[in-house]
Design goal:
Layout lengths: L2 E2 L38 H26 L5 H11 L4 H13 L8 H31 L5 H9 L8 H22 L2 H27 L19 H9 L4 E2 L1 H23 L1 H4 L1 H10 L7 H17 L9 H11 L2 H18 L11 H22 L10
Antiparallel strand pairs: 1-2
Helix pairs in contact: 1-2, 1-3, 1-12, 1-13, 1-14, 1-15, 2-9, 2-15, 3-8, 3-12, 4-6, 7-8, 9-12, 14-15
Length: about 400
């Protein structure tokens, strides 16, 4: 695969973690109203954040329809495609975080870093856990036993997707430990190291599936709130390692084909593999399980990252000042979208008379519900970042 580094040599930062013209991670909301123009070599990170948050919404909202539709009709098939072809979203977010956070800063004081990062994520973590634990306890379960709520909290799974807070918090905690690594290794060495760390959770998951298929009663260890981040350290490093890799020419066309093929394979595995061949389905689910630590999701995340990076390379129209500025504006809202989209989904369900989180059951309904939640969530996030008190929660 041919590649070329397109970004110019970058001056050392006086302090902080990333260039002042870009947000410091996908967790950050809108910056100053008069921010400098976006850097062309980092414009792709905003595009990736937008694409990834749309994918997150599709996973959760279309996933409701996939789970709740009883008949395997067209609406169910559409929901399945929207749900499973976008599973790469979280690893892509982590890779973008690596691009923006792992370049060693001039001030390498862990205290300085932790002070900035923990103060940034701490308030949203507390606020949205209270909101969603309250929603779960009051509106979505008949018996909100405190032990059940506490157990879900300890696992970092108080509500759908809240594990991401603990994932990103864990990555923040190890970031100062990784600066010497990225300093010491060449780009090739860093790619190899990051790929190896990414492959370890994949190998562990496959080994467990093989052992279970051979008759072992081995238990799959669930992560807790303190270990949610571990399977993603490789992606975190890989994002930084690939930050200057731009695929061109025929290789980019091949990468496009690979990206689409991986998305289609994941939906094929869910929808058609068992019907076509039970043995094939068992083999795929053993060696290529559709888990966040599975090999297909890892390959898909890397291919999406490289493809978007290559399409939004410096010199492209998408990396130009006007397009990059628009993308950054929307990109700065993605954390807010992540925080509120499930609440928006619940609100729409209640407005339609449903008691809880409900997915649409027609093809038009599935497409319309997902589009409505995406647009409304961006609107809500745009309002929240302008309110003096609530802007701290997004």
């Amino acid at each position: 695969m041919s590649s070329a580094a397109t970004s110019p040599s970058e001056p050392a930062l006086p302090s902080g973690l990333t260039p002042p013209t870009e947000p410091v991670s996908p967790v950050d909301a809108a910056g100053a109203a008069h921010a400098p123009p976006p850097r062309p070599d980092l414009a792709y990170t905003s595009h990736l954040r937008i694409i990834a948050i749309v994918a997150v919404v599709l996973i959760h909202v279309a996933g409701l329809s996939y789970q709740q539709i009883d008949d395997e009709n067209l609406a169910w098939t559409v929901a399945a495609h929207l749900t499973f072809s976008t599973k790469w979203a979280v690893p892509v977010f982590v890779m973008v975080s690596g691009v923006l956070l792992l370049r060693p800063p001039a001030n390498r004081s862990p205290r300085h870093f932790y002070g900035r990062r923990l103060s940034r994520i701490g308030i949203p973590l507390l606020f949205w856990h209270v909101v969603y634990i309250g929603l779960f306890s009051v509106a979505l379960v008949d018996d909100p036993a405190w032990r059940r709520i506490a157990a879900r909290f300890v696992l970092g799974e108080s509500f759908t997707a809240l594990y991401f807070f603990w994932l990103i918090l864990g990555l923040y905690l190890v970031t100062p430990l990784l600066w010497p690594v990225v300093d010491a290794l060449s780009r090739r060495g860093l790619i190899v190291t990051a790929a190896a760390l990414t492959a370890l959770p994949v190998a562990d998951l496959v080994a467990r599936r093989v052992a279970a298929r051979l008759g072992s009663d081995i238990a799959v260890a669930d992560p807790t709130l303190v270990t949610q981040f571990l399977p993603y350290v490789g992606f975190y490093l890989l994002g930084y390692a690939l930050k200057d890799v731009v695929v061109k020419g025929w290789a980019r066309a091949a990468l496009t084909v690979v990206t689409v093929a991986l998305a289609l394979e994941m939906t094929f595995q869910v929808l058609y593999a068992a019907e076509l061949s039970p043995a094939l389905s068992r083999t795929l689910n053993t060696f290529a399980p559709l888990s966040y630590q599975g090999p297909l999701l890892a390959l898909s995340a890397v291919s999406v990252f490289l493809l978007v990076h290559s399409l939004v390379a410096p010199g492209s129209r998408a990396a130009g000042r006007s397009w990059a500025a628009r993308a950054r504006t929307l990109g700065n809202l993605t954390f807010g979208v992540f925080c509120c989209h499930l609440l928006v989904t619940y609100a729409f369900s209640r407005l339609l008379g449903h008691p809880g989180l409900t997915g649409a059951r027609t093809t038009a309904g599935v497409l319309g519900q997902n589009l409505l939640v995406i647009v409304t969530s961006f609107g809500v996030a745009a309002v929240l970042v302008r309110l003096p008190l609530l802007r701290r929660v997004v």
